[in-house]
Write a structure and sequence with these properties.
- By secondary structure, this protein is an alpha/beta fold.
- The protein has four domains: 130 residues, no CATH class; 214 residues, Up-down Bundle (ABC transporter transmembrane region fold); 123 residues, Rossmann fold, CATH 3.40.50; 70 residues, Rossmann fold (3-Layer(aba) Sandwich).
- The protein is 62% helix and 9% strand.
- The chain has 24 helices and 15 strands.
- The strands form four sheets. A six-stranded mixed beta sheet has the order 9-12-13-6-14-15. It has a four-stranded antiparallel beta sheet with strand order 5-4-7-8, with no helix packed on it. The protein has a three-stranded antiparallel beta sheet with strand order 1-3-2.
- The longest helix has 54 residues.
- The chain is rod-shaped.
- The two termini are 66 Å apart.
- About 1% of the residues have low confidence.
């Protein structure tokens, strides 16, 4: 993936914003369990009372509580409380506590937490002492029994003992005891404790709702940023891959099959897009949630850390097993997709041949083999991932069970509150879910990584045929003189030359023809002129300029090329004829069609020049397709025309008519013709006879009949004595 990092640079802002929103989403999601814990602990168990320090307390009650405080706590409390009448919020407090008098006391300090600790210890000491005396806080007789106990000599000793015990009691127990006492204090002062509880639950719930809305906004924003980034990178990759492929010459096309290039341009780029849109989001989100959930969970209850550690060890073990088993299959996936596409394309492209030889069964078996290989590989991967989800669920449920079991014991020991245990379960689930997200990454990352490597392989392929750094230019107008100077050529990796020491000159107004047995190098030679390949030795010049020193566009603009197999593009007849010269006038298009002997069948079409042409020109015959290809080249009005065995698909009559019209049209152009039929090139100004890549004869038809045995054999096999 790092090989394609340059494609992320234009979307750096979206990437940063996406990560920021993901971080915000994670932080908000991690804060929600704490609010849930507060609702349970404070809202339900403590009646909405958040502190052991009462906001208002009667003078008598304060005096009673001070008896159960240490000297330090007593001094702290006396400094923290002022007469209610002197408090800045006297009116508000009077409304909240209607039975309080001006001589009662109200909390007025910044050290409320310390005061709460003092009251928590005093409340616990009081509760412990009342338990020892058999009294309860809620009964009047209980307080009378407590007063009698305090009046006895041993009472003060019991108070001192209670204060010492409270000082050693866990803060959780002190807080729970303190808020129970505070609730009773408020009830004595006429406060509506039910309203306090309701208000607390509602206010906390509203905060949770606001956080949930913000969390949703962050999630949507993060998804939007990542989706935009993924779509943008995919668009840029498709553009660059397509652009790169359009400049591939035959060597590069041989290296990558057409099916593979299609897969790389579609399926592979889609894999990268999915990773950036969704996978990268999970890759950033999972560690934040995992680490954050771990920290928050341990801060809630450190005593249950071993349960979480056990779950993490099990999860890591599962992930390592998945990684070892499934990773090789993930890497194999794209190659199998390539193979399936290749077989499918070969079957569809050669359908007529398959039918002609009744080989449907054989092709079906090939397809079944490729399909079964991909299916079995995919099933193995899916089965591996399918076992992951139940295993994760088992770990999550087992973890919840352990937390409830051992958390209940901690609650019984007053080391943990119910709400804290519930929050711990939520944080533990966040940690497990983060590992579940990571396991999903084991699906996406390997496939995306393999796909990125395959895309990078295309993008980094260096074109063997490329424009020079300091190009030369043709003088205008272009004359069209083509000269081969001791040209040799061999394909990359081949052991021998395909062409050896070929030299000739093709001049304007002349027709130069090439003939020879199959495999003699005719098409290879002609493909060197537009630089579909570059020569291995020697040079080819156009108007005296080495074609390797020219920009490819300038070189090919000077050539009207008709390939051996006529290929048309989706569009109309007119758009195909104007493909090489979009500015061609209608008269020029009509003239080109007439010379190519295509006017008659075009006029018979329902829509004439506007008749739709399907992809590859499959809705016209082979001869019609070839004539349209010739007309397309003629409409270019180029100084050089190359016909690569173009006339073999035409009948003799059409061939003769076309060549006669072509000769008049190309009086100022250089014409190069590759032919299989001697009748096509009888009138050529010079004919080059090729045999195993070498020129074994050069001259006119009559000259070659006298001097070239190879040409004689070809001619005598095709023509009668009268024609010769």
């Amino acid at each position: 993936m790092l090989k394609l990092k340059k494609y992320l640079k234009p979307y750096a802002l979206l990437l940063v914003l996406g990560i920021v929103f993901l971080f915000g989403q994670a932080m908000l999601e991690l804060s929600l369990p704490n609010y849930m814990s507060d609702i349970v602990n404070v809202g339900l168990q403590q009646g909405g009372i958040t502190s052991s320090a009462p906001q208002v307390i009667s003078a008598d009650t304060l005096g009673l509580m001070e008896q159960f405080m240490s000297t330090q706590d007593r001094e702290l409390v006396r400094e923290a409380y002022v007469p209610l009448a002197d408090h800045p919020k006297y009116e508000h407090l009077s409304d909240t506590y209607p039975q309080a008098t001006g001589t009662d006391f109200a909390l007025n300090t910044q050290e409320e937490e310390a005061v709460a600790g003092a009251f928590g210890r005093a409340s616990y000491a009081l509760t412990w002492l009342m338990t020892q005396s058999g009294a309860t806080q809620s009964s009047t007789g209980g307080f009378q029994a407590l007063g009698q106990l305090l009046a006895q000599p041993q009472g003060q000793q019991l108070v001192a003992q209670a204060i010492d015990i409270a000082a050693q009691t866990p803060d959780t127990m002190l807080e729970q005891t303190g808020v129970v006492m505070v609730k009773q204090f408020y009830q004595q002062l006429g406060a509506d404790t039910d309203a306090i509880q309701t208000n607390y639950i509602l206010s906390t719930g509203v905060r949770m709702a606001v956080l949930a809305i913000l969390l949703t906004v962050c999630a949507i924003a993060a998804g939007y940023c990542m989706a935009r980034m993924g779509a943008g990178v995919a668009r840029d990759l498709r553009r660059d891959v397509f652009t790169k492929v359009t400049y591939f010459n035959n060597d590069e096309m041989d290296r990558f099959s057409g099916a593979s290039l299609i897969t790389r341009s579609t399926n592979d780029i889609t894999q990268v897009q999915n990773f950036l849109s969704m996978g990268f989001r999970l890759l950033c989100f999972a560690p934040i949630m995992g680490i954050g959930g771990l920290i928050m969970g341990l801060s809630t209850c450190l005593n249950l850390a071993w349960v979480l550690a056990l779950a993490l060890v099990v999860m890591l073990g599962l992930l390592m097993i998945l990684f070892a088993v499934a990773m090789p299959r993930f890497k194999k996936m794209q190659a199998l997709v390539d193979r399936l596409n290749l077989v499918s394309r070969e079957e569809i492209g050669g359908l007529m041949v398959v039918r002609a030889f009744s080989n449907q069964k054989f092709m079906q078996q090939r397809f079944e083999k490729a399909n079964d290989d991909l299916t079995s590989n995919t099933l193995f991967v899916n089965r591996a991932m399918a076992t992951m989800l139940p295993a994760m669920t088992l770990v999550m449920n087992g973890l919840s069970l352990l937390i409830v079991w051992f958390g209940g014991k901690e609650i019984a020991a007053s080391n943990l509150q119910v709400g804290d245990m519930m929050a711990f379960i939520q944080y533990a689930m966040h940690v497990i879910m983060s590992f579940l997200f990571i396991s999903m990454m084991f699906i996406m990352v390997p496939r995306a990584s393999v796909s990125a490597d395959r895309i990078y392989e295309v993008l980094e392929t260096e074109n063997q045929v490329k424009d020079p750094e300091h190009p030369l230019h043709l003088s205008q107008p272009v004359q069209g003189v083509v000269e081969f100077r001791d040209v040799s050529f061999r394909y990359p990796g081949a052991d021998a030359d395909v062409l050896e020491h070929v030299s000739f000159v093709a001049r304007p107004g002349q027709t130069t023809a090439f003939i020879g047995s199959t495999g003699s190098g005719k098409s290879t030679l002609i493909n060197l002129i537009p630089r579909f390949h570059d020569v291995s030795e020697g040079s080819i010049t156009l108007d005296g300029v080495d074609i390797r020193a020219l920009p490819q566009k300038e070189l090919r603009d000077a050539i009207g090329y008709v390939p051996q197999k006529g290929i048309l593009l989706r569009g109309t007849v007119e758009s195909n004829l104007k493909y090489g010269n979009p500015a061609a006038s209608q008269d020029l298009v009509d003239q080109s069609a007439r010379i190519a002997q295509a006017s008659e069948f075009i006029s018979q079409l329902e829509q004439g020049m506007q008749t739709p042409i399907s992809q590859g020109g499959t809705n016209v015959s082979g001869g019609q397709r070839q004539r349209l290809s010739i007309a397309r080249a003629l409409a270019k009005q180029a100084p050089v025309y190359i016909f690569d065995d173009t006339f073999s698909a035409l009948d003799f009559k059409t061939d003769a008519q076309l060549r006669a019209a072509l000769k008049e049209y190309t009086t100022q152009a250089t014409v190069l013709i590759v032919a299989q039929r001697v009748s096509t090139i009888l009138d050529a100004d010079q004919i080059l006879v090729l045999d195993q890549g070498k020129v074994v004869g050069c001259g006119t038809h009559q000259e070659l009949m006298r001097s070239c045995p190879t040409y004689q054999e070809i001619a005598q096999s095709q023509l009668s004595k009268e024609e010769l």
